[in-house]
Amino acid sequence: MSPRRSLTILLVFMILIAVMTASSTFGNVRTMGGADRPNDFRDQKDIARIETCVGPCLSKYPGPKEFISKNSMKMAGLQVLFIGEYPKLYIYGGDQETKQEIDIRQKSAEEIEKILLSVGCQYRQ
User: Fold this and answer.
1) CA–CA separation, 11 vs 109, rounded Å?
2) Are 95 and 44 in contact (CB under 8 A)?
3) Taking all residues of the chain, what is their mean pLDDT, rounded to a whole number?
4) Model pTM greater than 0.70?
């Protein structure tokens, strides 16, 4: 094997190791900075969160679809995540832990709105 080929192989392995190290470091960025749970997307001011699917999946649930498309962006204290699950509503307690989980697949937009207003979400001014 020629010295030039050996040097090329060594260089490729060094780059591969550098990329693997960088990817493992950057992969942990989400959990750095004191976050206890890497999938905790809540903000301190969030009162409730809707986790749902999108597109044809969400079209199967007319009430949640109507509420999400027309009213969800107008509400303070509500977060909507499109994660590919059937529509669920999570209500948080004062300690920011999940207090209640509600299946909203069969609820109307008005019912969802009433639930959110009753737990403290408000329409933005």
Assistant:
1) 60
2) no
3) 81
4) no
pLDDT of residue 6: 81
The answer to whether 64 touches 49, Cβ cutoff 8 Å, is no
CB-count exposure of residue 68 (10 Å: 0-12, 13-18, 19+): buried
Contact 102, 88 (CB under 8 A): yes
Q: Summarize pLDDT for 3-39 with one digit per residue, the tens.
A: 788 888 888 878 878 777 765 544 443 333 334 444 5
Angle CA 30–36–38, to nearest 5: 35
DSSP string, 102-114: EE-TT--HHHHHH
What is the C-alpha to C-alpha distance for residues 52 and 49, in angstroms, rounded to an integer? 10
